[in-house]
Amino acid sequence: MTDRELYERAVAVAQRAYAPYSSYLVGAAVLLRDGRVVEGVNVENAAYPLGICAEKSALSAAVVAGYGPGDVEAIGITASPCGGCRQWLHEFRLDRATYLHDGELVTRSAAELLPDTWSL
Amino acid sequence: MTDRELYERAVAVAQRAYAPYSSYLVGAAVLLRDGRVVEGVNVENAAYPLGICAEKSALSAAVVAGYGPGDVEAIGITASPCGGCRQWLHEFRLDRATYLHDGELVTRSAAELLPDTWSL
Amino acid sequence: MTDRELYERAVAVAQRAYAPYSSYLVGAAVLLRDGRVVEGVNVENAAYPLGICAEKSALSAAVVAGYGPGDVEAIGITASPCGGCRQWLHEFRLDRATYLHDGELVTRSAAELLPDTWSL
Amino acid sequence: MTDRELYERAVAVAQRAYAPYSSYLVGAAVLLRDGRVVEGVNVENAAYPLGICAEKSALSAAVVAGYGPGDVEAIGITASPCGGCRQWLHEFRLDRATYLHDGELVTRSAAELLPDTWSL
């Protein structure tokens, strides 16, 4: 699966997001090192800080399926990840993230997205 | 599926939790109104506030699968839900939650768990 | 200071909330056992789950000022606290919370707001 | 006030952090454009995801005091900010953050800390 295809999986699943407060639908698709793909969407809450992002939704689904840090190769996201999700990409040691930024598809490493973060 | 069986599903999946910081493994299993069951676990992060609970993990998996508020009948959890997750049970309009509390299996409605909360 | 006065302090400070996404201004005022009052407001973020509620804002200000669990007597809030904040009221062992609910000023204990929660 | 002095304020206030779960005390000090300094500490919760970081504590105190995005010049932090807090530095449009990283005091812009983030 190419990074572009992973991004397209994220775009497709975004339609299922539960985002009645922002109306901003986000999707994410995680590529595991064994080739499996797991998806996520943002899930909002009337108490805004209690919601979760699509990247966390996808990565937690990977954990439920038996995967952990080191098992995830890449993620496709419909938009640039928020800082909180960048910390998750670092925690799970992803090689790269692909997302739409300023109208262009870009691919970045977790370290590029979160410079100077601490070692685990 | 009985409430006890749902709780037992939660206990079984808890082994997959990613909880290296608290070593406190939590599992959750959601029963959808069509009979399907979806599972979740807590996923911690080195930046503690960025982690997510098992209940959110399970409910976000239900959303990814195409379900939303009103579609979830019950949840089984290995422990009493935190306040943040009770707000999610309210948002998704679950009928009831079953969990272990003081060594006993109890079942409560979302309204009992979060009295006086706002209408959606 | 009466519970009503504490609530009125919450109403007054709510005007300072940073809530450009929900336009829902929330204020909170905490009464410490030594008589001091500390205030808080909700602070939202473009990434919704990263925001914080007024109750957390007020209680963290109390911590910065040198107070901790057991030192806080009561809180006034402009609205019913979300589940996440109820967990903070429990953690800080407040005696009571006063807020507007269905057009009426109500006062509840932390235990009433979060039944069946765990012991600390 | 120099960036080093701001950092030293963060170190001093960190002693007041409420961090019984991680035992990791974090302090932050925010320099407002009018010269005033506001402090914050991390406040943890038994439900880990409900805690807040020192940077959020400090910036919310600034908001309570009547300041908002654009009014904050710099922040000193005892450690590299997590991704969630970097998003707050972006939201509040800080010029720079100073913190200890790999034993050295470093100063970075909000854009350096969170490359490719969205415009507000």
Number of distinct beta strands of chain A: 5
Mean pLDDT of chain A: 97
- Oligomeric state of shown chains: homotetramer
CATH uppermost class of chain A: Alpha Beta
Distance between the termini of chain A: 29 Å
Report the radius of gyration of chain A as a whole number of Å: 13 Å
Helix content of chain A: 25-40%
CATH superfamily of chain A: Cytidine Deaminase, domain 2
Low-confidence stretches of chain A: none
Find the structural class of chain A using helix and strand composition.
Answer: alpha+beta
Q: Using a beta-carbon cutoff below 8 angstroms, give the protein chain pair with the largest interface and the number of residues from each chain.
A: C-D, 30 and 31 residues
Total number of helices of chain A: 4
Q: Work out the count of structural domains of chain A.
A: 1
- From the spread of the alpha carbons, the general shape of chain A counts as globular
Report on the structure:
Four copies of one chain form a homotetramer. The first copy, chain A, has four helices and five strands; from the N terminus they run H-E-E-H-E-H-E-E-H. Chain A has 120 residues and is an alpha+beta fold. A five-stranded mixed beta sheet of chain A has the order 2-1-3-4-5. Chains in contact: A-B, A-C, A-D, B-C, B-D, C-D. The interface between C and D is medium-sized, with 30 and 31 residues.
Features:
homotetramer; 120 residues; alpha+beta; Cytidine Deaminase, domain 2; 5-stranded mixed β-sheet; 4 helices; 5 strands; 29% helix; globular
Write the layout of secondary structure elements.
4 copies of one chain form a homotetramer.
Chain A: H1 3-13, E1 27-32, E2 37-41, H2 54-64, E3 72-77, H3 83-91, E4 96-101, E5 104-108, H4 110-113
Parallel strand pairs in A: 3-4
Antiparallel strand pairs in A: 1-2, 1-3, 4-5
